[in-house]
Specification:
mainly beta; Neuraminidase; 4-stranded antiparallel β-sheet; about 10% helix; Gal_Oxase/kelch_b-propeller
């Protein structure tokens, strides 16, 4: 009898140990994020979630999805434009439902979106007939605020919000030259002296440091640049053209997506990691996102027939975003 009880006790303890071991094993399995990508399939702005496509329009008119952000319970925000009466109109799609941001009959485009504490910030630009210029704007919960004075054309391309401070990148057209600009709470800081053309495409805040990616043009070529707290640095082979379109930072490691020569490129702390071979039409990486030790990049490559194909690279390994090879491309990625 004692032996039987002892055996049952050993079996019970063994089951507990096995159960705990399984729980520990499962807890060590990394949770894979849902991958959201914004881009275009031929003529139609598209959102892909883990490879499944949702079309934002019916494709009968020109429209584009430029940026994507996912928050809360899979609420998906996408910026871009729709063409109405031949005019491009800044648009925000929330869960696929289009919201017109502009009430004027003139051209406007939404380029980036950030959502913080249920407030939705959109960066873009709009033509103002009274000033006869394009004006850089931020829409907060649909209400526009001009962040440029209208004395010259200005365009907002990216937005980040940190501790109630709003950071916007873009460029101003001053004295016939594009000048990369960072606006903080509507106050502009020009990132170059304006001697050479330059643009800023992406901004991220990490540990109170402000990182901006873009380019400066000189010696007959575009040259990818990174500005950290306003200080510009170079990190490319300056014998080849390059542009930085997106920046992400984690644990003091800086990831930049763009292109060099005709190849899609990821730079990690300034070290080049080619994502593709070259193509005469120009392969490129447009957006980078991080999840723990994994690096996700989206962009496009061209095939031998000259068709553009949307691409996702995870840790440098390429995959097709879509089976539709009829001119697709990917502009923005978010993980949730």
């Amino acid at each position: 009898m004692k032996k039987r009880i002892k055996n049952r006790l050993l079996i019970f303890i063994s089951l507990i140990v096995i159960s705990c071991s399984e729980d520990e094993t499962n807890s060590n399995v990394p949770v894979q994020p849902d991958i959201y990508i914004a881009g275009k399939t031929k003529y139609t702005p598209t959102v892909w979630r883990d490879g499944s496509a949702t079309y934002l329009t019916d494709g009968t008119y020109n429209a584009e999805a430029t940026s994507i952000t996912v928050v809360n319970n899979d609420e998906v925000y996408v910026t871009g434009f729709e063409t109405k009466d031949i005019i491009k109109k800044a648009t925000l799609w929330k869960n696929g439902n289009a919201i017109d941001l502009s009430t004027t009959p003139f051209t406007s485009i939404a380029n980036a979106v950030a959502v913080v504490n249920d407030d939705v910030y959109v960066a873009g630009y709009e033509y103002e007939s009274t000033k006869n210029t394009f004006v850089a704007k931020v829409w907060k919960n649909g209400i526009p605020t001009s962040i440029s004075n209208g004395n010259h054309d200005a365009y907002a391309t990216s937005i980040a919000v940190d501790n109630d401070d709003v950071y916007v990148t873009g460029h101003e057209y001053i004295n016939y030259t594009d000048v990369a600009t960072l606006w903080i709470n509507g106050v502009p800081t020009r990132l170059t002296d304006g001697e050479n053309p330059s643009k800023a495409y992406s901004v991220v805040i990490e540990n109170n440091d402000v990182y901006v990616a873009g380019y400066e043009f000189y010696n007959g070529n575009f040259h990818a640049k990174l500005w950290k707290n306003g200080v510009m640095s170079s990190f490319t082979d300056e014998t080849k053209p390059s542009i930085a379109y997106s920046v992400a930072v984690e644990n003091n490691t800086v990831y930049i997506a763009g292109y060099e020569d005709t190849a899609a490129m990821l730079w990690i702390n300034g070290e080049a990691h080619p994502l593709s071979g070259g193509h005469v039409l120009g392969n490129q990486a447009n957006s980078v996102a991080l999840n723990k030790n994994d690096v996700y990049v989206v962009g496009h490559t061209y095939d031998d027939d000259g068709l553009r194909n949307a691409k996702l690279w995870k840790n440098g390994e390429p995959s097709n975003v879509t089976d539709n090879t009829d001119g697709s491309y990917a502009l923005s990625i978010d993980l949730h």
